[in-house]
Write a structure and sequence with these properties.
Order of helices and strands: HHHHHHEEEHEHEHEHEHEHEH
Structural class: alpha/beta
Shape: globular
Oligomer: single chain
Helix content: 40-55%
Low-confidence stretches: 291-295
Number of domains: 2
Strand order of the largest sheet: 1-2-6-5-4-3-7-8-9
Radius of gyration: 20 Å
Number of helices: 13
CATH architecture of the largest domain: 3-Layer(aba) Sandwich
CATH topology of the largest domain: Rossmann fold
Mean pLDDT: 93
Distance between the termini: 48 Å
Number of strands: 9
Strand content: 5-15%
């Protein structure tokens, strides 16, 4: 059985995340067959692995995984792993301390997708924020920058729409659900339009339901794929604030607008860079992004 199938099987095993998978590789080497056939005692020699995880690894049904891969391939879903990355695995994600062990993707990853900025914000934006999200994404697309967002209602949707309003504009939608289970359903048509110009991707099973932890976890993918993150509008306890904190930990520059929202104020007080609402200082983005050039 090809190594890819074995790596996918391991990465989808209950309680085995990217950090555990990396620990297994450090211990056993680039040998997924050795990991899957290891004894309980051998597995428990790996830091962080106890009886529960060992049992999960030993219970992997490779035939079931093989059938699932065939099913996903029939749906034109591309599967790639961080352990043995190929041309389909987004290379910027490998910068993360815990890159997604598996990425499920609809659409083809292109080199131009590496030239990206994230745009995120509240699901219930003010009229000004809605307009700004569309405008900033439009300007980015006009400068040949891919727009990354999370397909949520509000700011995310406006950002995708802004990129798509430009001929040839590109956008990436990162989901907190499976790529065959678009969430929210209201953005199904938008997701298909994103697919025409970019990719839809997720780190969870293609049919997985959205959940709060999954929606939070996707933030590191949005920021990981981006050379900078623009938080258009957010409350201090909003999901976009989590994305901003993740970006700051990753060393990804964070920008925001002075719109009066509690989260925006907090971000500006804690080092986020100010974008003017008339976009007159738009070019400041490019001063910090070596892979992006203003056109």
């Amino acid at each position: 059985m090809p190594d890819l199938t074995l790596w996918i099987a391991l990465s989808l095993t209950d309680h085995v995340g990217s950090k555990t998978l990396n620990a297994l590789v450090q211990h056993f080497g680039d040998r997924p067959d050795a990991i899957l056939s290891a004894s309980t005692d051998a597995l428990q020699q790996v830091p962080g692995i106890g009886p529960k995880i060992a049992r999960s690894i030993q219970a992997v049904d490779l035939e079931q995984v093989r059938r699932a891969l065939a099913d996903w391939q029939a749906s034109e879903i591309i599967t790639a792993t961080s352990i043995n990355p190929d041309q389909h695995y987004p290379p910027l994600l490998l910068r993360l301390d815990d890159p997604p062990a598996t990425v499920f993707m609809r659409g083809q990853w292109q080199p131009s997708h590496n030239n990206a900025v994230g745009v995120v914000g509240t699901r219930q934006p003010s009229a000004a924020a809605q307009t700004l999200a569309h405008a900033i994404a439009t300007r980015l697309a006009q400068n040949d920058v891919t727009v990354v967002s999370g397909l949520a209602l509000g700011v995310d949707a406006a950002s995708h729409e802004g990129a798509l309003s430009v001929p040839g504009g590109r956008t990436i939608a990162v989901l907190g659900s499976g790529v065959r289970n678009i969430y929210p359903a209201a953005n199904q048509a938008l997701a298909m339009r994103c697919l025409e110009r970019g990719v839809i991707l997720s780190e969870v099973h293609p049919d997985a339901q959205p959940s709060a932890p999954r929606l939070v976890a996707r933030n590191r993918m949005i920021t990981g794929l981006s050379h900078a993150l623009i938080v258009v509008e957010t409350a201090a306890d909003g999901g976009a604030m989590h994305a901003a904190r993740v970006a700051q930990r990753q060393g990804c520059p964070v920008y925001t607008f002075d719109l009066g929202a509690s989260g925006n104020r907090e971000l500006l007080a804690n080092g986020a860079r100010l974008l003017k609402t008339d976009l007159s200082n738009f070019n400041c983005l490019f001063e910090h992004l070596p892979r992006i050039s203003d056109q």
